[in-house]
Write a structure and sequence with these properties.
single chain; alpha/beta; TIM Barrel; two-stranded antiparallel ribbon; 38% helix; 13% strand; globular
């Protein structure tokens, strides 16, 4: 396993981090659906410990992941001596409307410590900062609350995760409140590259979410893209991870690993001697791949599920996932079949796009700024064509 320093925190962290937003579930269905149902606790614990035993020492979760259960499962996984082996990170749900008083910082932090069954969280992030939430954080003077939590030994380092423009990101970095930041960066989305460099040069630890484009680069490559595969591979995970790791300002790339195959594949990549070295051929393939995928879809749903629950039960992540698999991976027949079965199978819960009443509740919650209402219409048209 390769390691880097997490900025001015001084912590030595594995370049591969275990993201606990996509843990294995008991009702996990087809590969192109987002896992539904309760976490398969035994398997999740086994996989997390398997990764730690192989050298992964950074684990990431959040208050709301897996319907508020991710922290509890991770807490179980970190028993029996595993807590001492990792840098533990979770997030304060500042994005919640009801998170609107200064004391809510302590209330949620104490609840999270209880769920994780620990006395201290190593890295505590304000979750999903954007222009509005950043304003809220300042109004609530959360840096003062964080400093107090440090003095009390409840957290070691303070940071933020981010979903907005580079201009807003620079403003947050320049506040000098934070030691660590978590941003999206991958072959398909390089908008934060300049700010990653800026933050790194200021001594911040930089964590990356979505290195595989929310899983879009992890699926089996379609026929029209196989020419860009590395020999012996069926997906683009190797190129995606190397692209992120080649950036010297990146400390950790977080990967949501829901199966043993994902864990072993990522471990092999993060342990290779040339893990962060891109050849000229690989650079050319990455550029061609990114161009092709952007031609097929302008905005990509990363399956973060922040848009859920929909008051009308529209399963937005599932619908967009099916849309992507039809457009990019050519799984038109399977995608249409799955769409037609939404609401009729435990694998495909909720309702399809026809249940959308355009209330607009989902769109402000989307970190990718996807025009959800219009794209649901496009998805329905695509997934019901020729019926």
């Amino acid at each position: 396993m390769k390691y880097r320093t997490l900025g001015k925190t001084g912590r030595k962290v594995s370049v591969l981090g275990y993201g606990c937003m996509r843990l294995p579930t008991r009702d996990q269905g087809e590969q192109f659906t987002y896992p539904n149902g309760p976490i398969n606790r035994e398997e999740a614990i086994r996989l997390i410990r398997m990764a730690i035993d192989a050298g992964v020492n950074y684990v990431d979760t959040a208050y709301n992941y897996h319907d508020d259960e991710s922290e509890r499962v991770l807490g179980e996984a970190l028993k029996e001596g595993y807590r001492e082996k990792v840098t533990l990170e979770t997030k304060a749900p500042i994005w919640k409307e009801e998170y609107n008083k200064p004391e809510h910082f302590e209330e949620h932090l104490d609840e999270q410590l209880e769920k994780l069954q620990v006395d201290c969280i190593d890295v505590y992030l304000l979750h999903s900062l954007n222009k509005n939430n950043w304003k809220k954080a300042q109004e609530l003077n959360l840096i003062e609350r964080a400093e107090k939590a440090k003095e009390e030994g409840k957290i070691n380092h303070f940071g933020f995760s981010f979903h907005d423009s580079p201009e807003v990101l620079k403003e947050i970095i320049d506040s000098d409140w934070f030691e660590v930041m978590l941003v999206q960066y991958n072959i398909l989305d390089q908008v934060n590259e300049e700010m990653i460099k800026y933050a790194g040069e200021k001594g911040m630890g930089v964590l990356i979410m979505g290195p595989n484009g929310g899983g879009r680069l992890a699926g089996k490559a379609p026929e029209n893209m196989k020419k860009w595969l590395t020999e012996g591979r069926e997906n683009f995970v190797d190129l995606a991870m190397k692209f992120v790791w080649k950036n010297p300002h990146v400390s950790v790339a977080l990967s949501g690993m829901g199966s043993e195959l994902m864990v072993t594949d990522n471990l092999a990549l993060a342990s290779g001697e040339k893990y962060d070295n891109l050849t000229e051929d690989e650079k050319e393939r990455i550029e061609a791949l990114g161009t092709k995928i952007k031609e097929l879809t302008e905005q990509i749903c990363t399956q973060c599920r922040y848009c859920q629950p929909c008051p009308n039960e529209v399963n937005i992540p599932l619908i967009f996932g099916l849309m992507i698999h039809s457009q990019i991976y050519g799984n038109e027949t399977a995608a249409k079949w799955a769409y037609s079965n939404i609401g009729n199978s435990r694998w495909f819960p909720g309702k399809n796009a026809t249940a959308c009443v355009e209330c607009g509740e989902c769109e402000p919650k989307c970190p990718q700024k996807i025009p959800i209402i219009e794209q649901l219409k496009d998805a329905h048209e695509l997934l019901t064509a020729n019926e």
